[in-house]
Amino acid sequence: MTAQDRYDALDRLPLTPVGQSGRSWLGMWASIKDIFAHREMLGLMVRRDIKARYKDSALGLVWTLVRPLTQLAIYYLVLGVFLNARAGIPDFAVYVFTGLTAYGLFSEIVGGGTASIIGNSGLIKKVYLPREVFPLASVGSALFNFAIQMVILIAASLLLGSEPITWQVLYFIPSVLVLLVWATALALLLSAWNVYLRDVQYLVEVVIMLMLWASPIVYSWSAVQNVAGNNIFGTLYSANPVTLAVMGFQRAFWPIGATLDTPHSPDNLLLRLIIALVVGLVALFLAQRVFARLQGNFAQAI
Fold this sequence. Notes:
- It is a single chain.
- The chain has one domain (22-301).
- Helix 3 (39-53) crosses helix 8 and helix 5 packs antiparallel against helix 10.
- The radius of gyration is 22 Å and the shape is elongated.
- It contains 15 helices and no strands.
- It is mainly α.
């Protein structure tokens, strides 16, 4: 068979569509089925990311705790002791570490997910995988690190907290769901944009740094209310899903805050978390549809 005969035979083969259906709901369902069909590859990529992060490291997983514990030491000494930010916040160390643990999950998913497509450019050019697998692998590796930090947080809450963990630990469930849904939505959206505009990755790093201070991690929510009150700034601040999730974590693992005269979270926090979760699910759906529209030219753009 000559080369021309092979070309003609290939030309007669029917085209098989790859990827999602053009219609939104069917496309979303097709994406879920495609990801599920490649779940073993997703698991391999999660394990690869975890192993690559600590490859040739003498301390290994210990480095998972170095950054948050270093941040805790800096914030506790500089802000808590030197600037007296711990005034009015009992168990300040537990309070800060609770916020850092929650925010660390969000920032690691968004930061890692944004760079995931570019970071796997070689694999994207060679084989077909549902492109969502790459940001989702960042979610999986972030959850692994989060689980390790949660062990430390629970131990600190039990050993250092003046109040035992109560039924309010149930706030953990909606809080972590809000973080996961919003962070995954942003990871999908930003990872696609980053393929076509590489400045997105560097902008995200700056925004993640700024957002750390937009949540009551090293200061109290009541301090913001004393300044902003019920004006538009205070309303927007309390509507931030990351802020709500951080305060949910504090309710769960810093239960002394619920017994103080000064409130450390807005009224109806659970209802606010549920609303943030529902809106986040809508945002996740829209982000995936934008991702599906943009993924067709990933290999060429990279």
